[in-house]
Amino acid sequence: MLSGWVLKCIMSDAQERYKQIIEGIANADREIARAFEERIRWVRALSALRKESGGVMYKLPHLEEVLRTARLVLRELDGELALRTLEAVMREVVGASGLWFGPLRIALAGPDFELARVAARAAFGSLAELFLASSPAEAIRSVERNEASAALLPFETTDEGTVASTLFALVHGSVPVIGERTVPRAYHLYGCSEDGPIERITGSRFALSACARSIEERWPEALVIESRSIEHALELAQSEAKTAVLLTSDEEAQGLRRIHAHLEDDPHLKVRFVVLSRDVPRRTGADRTLIALLLQEKPGSLYAALAPFAERGINISHVESRRAPGPSFEQLVFLELDGHISDRPMLAALDEVRMRSRELKVLGSYPKPTGQN
Fold this sequence. Notes:
Layout lengths: L3 H49 L10 H9 L8 H19 L6 E4 L4 H12 L4 E4 L3 H9 L5 E8 L3 E2 L1 H9 L4 E8 L3 E4 L8 E4 L1 H6 L1 H7 L4 E4 L3 H10 L3 E5 L9 E4 L9 E7 L10 E9 L5 H11 L4 E8 L7 E8 L5 H13 E11 L6
Parallel strand pairs: 1-2, 1-3, 7-8, 7-9
Antiparallel strand pairs: 3-4, 3-11, 5-11, 6-9, 6-10, 12-14, 12-15, 13-14
Helix pairs in contact: 2-3, 10-11
């Protein structure tokens, strides 16, 4: 059995180590605050330069650029948790810095507003103001009219493929794609109590559809109620103890407790969103380019249009054909290419493809999401 003197020495040593740790954390916090102050000073200088230059688009580094730089600093902290924490912190820093250039208003579109809101928070941070547009085309028009800083639109789902309304809105709009964000289509159940009975489950049409089998298996007697909005669903769950609500994240729960995690029937469902803005990112060397083609009406036109990319070693990561709306039955071809619009091989290939097609439009060129290099 340890004597009192030995215990006292052990406790004294632990207290000294604890004091050193707390002092180290405090010093790190001061360094973070000083670094943020310095970043804001440079951001304000950039804002002033833009005003002095008469509208010349001097740009802040985009989030993907910032993350690539920050990850080089993470030499000792390795692993998925460190990277996720870093991304969360830098996302808020980048979003807060952008406020020095004006309000950050983001137009969202698509039927699953909950998931779009999660993607928008992941792309722009918690300080951005989000609003729902009536359609992808209207979201793009809100940016064209300077009513929004950017738009975030559903582009592709793992179960249903590309979203046609977004594809055609990109073709007809004038705002380029500057990035993308993929989020899992995950839903959790929240309520006032973790232990009480559940008699009613509410949520959006998409949330209820994605979790239909799980709800039937776990709560076969529960009344399923489709809500007209997240706010309405939360109001029901907060006012009725036996009502639970399906949400995509704890951030939306507003004090409700998580009753059950991951109720989605298919755990592999994901939705890819594209971000549109006039604030075009710089070339990074690990980029993606989206284009749309209207082919010539003759045999072999698709092969002829794609050949210049293969000849120059440009990878086509995705190709899809869609019939354009209207009576003409014209086929639009959408391509995702590895590379930037300013790369010499890309420029040469696009010039040749343009001559072999009836129409060609570059929809955007932007850094690949981190981890897809």
